[in-house]
Amino acid sequence: MMTQFRMILKSMRPRQWLKNIFVFAALVFDGQLFSYRSFLTTSLAVLLFCLVSSLSYLINDLVDIEADRKHPKKQLRPLASGELSQKNALIGVIILAVVVFPASFVLDLVFGLIISAYFLLMVAYSMVLKRIPLLDVMVIATGFVLRVAAGVVVINIDMLSPWLFVATTFLALFIALGKRRAEMSLLQDEAGNHRQVLQGYTKDFLDQLLTIVMSTTLMTYCLYTFSSPIASNNQSMMLTIPFVIYGLFRYLYLIRIKRIGGAPEEIVLTDRHMQITITFWSLTVILILYFL
């Protein structure tokens, strides 16, 4: 039983919970990072997003179990490898659903609606949308925007710069397109057999999209820094732009030159350059928004 529990936990993909840090965006950029009440509420929202993400991962693995068994890396997942039974995976799905949705609506009604919308979107993604080129990456980007929106509603922010939402959308698109590009490099001629949507892409097409989206990500982030609503000196936020430029360039370098990036969270957890860049960007943002 304990072995099955560990396999369920592994299938919940705790490494990918890193994506849910976007829920903290509203807390940080609205100047409430050091508010105990707001921090606690946002942390609970992050936890619930981690659990609903894991719920969607379990459902996705159940739906894709046969395809995953043919994938060079995904075949090692607990369900695909047979280490986790489908029955126990279904039990995990039920338990997570019973916990996540009531708790989300108790925390905040609108937050509960956002969590529900996110879950339904991810289920639709697992069932249909991930097989449709372009729409697949747009759904992923929408998931990140919903995370930011969730962080807004739980601490009652009246208004957050719209440029922050737009920049988040394009950043998520950039990461999703990079993931597709890395998968094509890894799987080569077998790409379409392992992930159906890759039949609708070519490397050249993805490279063009990456160039466009990277430029737009940088542009919209710059527009946010020019109009930050809480910085005492709006122009000081421009000091964070070099870190964003290097971070975008580094990610592109890793997927194009090093041919990694199929799991973007692994880049953040393993690439020292990216870790240093994110750390210095974060410290600079906090210094500008809270101490200048």
What secondary-structure arrangement, pairings included, does this model have?
Layout: H1 2-11, H2 25-29, H3 36-63, H4 65-68, H5 78-81, H6 86-107, H7 109-127, H8 135-154, H9 162-187, H10 191-194, H11 203-226, H12 241-256, H13 264-270, H14 272-291
Describe, in plain words, how this protein is organized in 3D:
- It is a single chain.
- This protein has 292 residues and is mostly helical.
- It folds into 2 domains: 158 residues, Tetracycline Repressor, domain 2 (Orthogonal Bundle), CATH 1.10.357; 132 residues.
- The chain has 14 helices and no strands.
- The termini are far apart.
- The model has no long low-confidence stretch (mean pLDDT 88).
Features:
2 domains, about 70% helix, about 290 residues, Tetracycline Repressor, domain 2, globular, single chain, mainly alpha
Quick overview:
This protein folds into two domains: 1-158, Tetracycline Repressor, domain 2 (Orthogonal Bundle); 161-292.
Q: Sheet with the most strands?
A: none
CATH superfamily name of the largest domain? UbiA prenyltransferase
The average pLDDT is 88
Cα radius of gyration in angstroms? 19 Å
Query: What's the quaternary structure here?
Result: single chain
* Class by alpha and beta content: mainly alpha
> Into how many domains do the coordinates divide?
2
CATH topology of the largest domain: Tetracycline Repressor, domain 2
CATH architecture classification name of the largest domain? Orthogonal Bundle
